[in-house]
Amino acid sequence: MDNRPKRSMDEAASFEIGSVTSLKEEPTQGEEENEDYEFVSKRRRAPGSLSAANEQHLADWFAEQPCFWDHCDANFRNRGKKERMLAKKAVEVGMTGEDLSSWFKSMRTGYGRLIDVIRYSEYF
């Protein structure tokens, strides 16, 4: 059985998806005050800003590591090896492996979008 306090439709409609909100609920009969409920956005944090020199260094490093971008590379599907490589490189530039992976994916996506615009503009 669900023992959570029921909310009215007005309360439910007042929440924004992805917003960070604290809500203190009124205690129900026979209960102490409930804990604060916090709704946290699912959006990831942006990786820390990098200097132009660090960005160029990382771009050169990724260009030398085909396991991150070449589907034909023997280690392309080896997640463990790639995670270890990212963690080691991230320490060198003062980031986490997850942030470095996010940065690379962001750069790759941006590059792909630019290429698509160029290809599309050639037809018109």
From TrEMBL:
InterPro entries: MADF-dom. Residues 28-38 have a biased composition (Acidic residues). Residues 57-124 form the MADF domain. Residues 1-10 have a biased composition (Basic and acidic residues). Residues 1-39 are annotated as: Disordered. This is MADF domain-containing protein. It comes from Capitella teleta (Polychaete worm). The lineage of its organism: Eukaryota, Metazoa, Spiralia, Lophotrochozoa, Annelida.
